[in-house]
Amino acid sequence: MGDANELEWGEPVTHGGITATVTKHTECDIHCDVNYRVTLTGPDARSEWYNSNPSPIAKPKLPQAS
Question: For residue 42, is pLDDT > 80?
Fold first, then answer.
């Protein structure tokens, strides 16, 4: 498993029209729990939601992590 600090980005990262934002949440009582949330935002296909014959939606190629 990698270092959790690698998940912390100073700014959102955009690739292929999709933006990834990482936020860190720390909760402490007796012990501290650190959680990371990745939020993805980008284009949607709202115009196709109620279309009985929807058009294909573009599938961006995003970088892969190993």
Answer: yes
List beta partners, residue 32: 28
3-state secondary structure at position 38: strand
- Residue 43 tokens read as 């284009």
pLDDT tens per residue across span 7-26: 666 788 888 888 989 888 88
Cross-strand pairs, 26 = 34
Nearest 5°: the CA angle 14, 11, 4 is: 100
Instruction: Delimit the domains of the chain by residue range.
Output: 17-43
19 with 13: CB under 8 angstroms?
yes
- Please say whether the beta carbons of 54 and 45 come within 8 A: yes
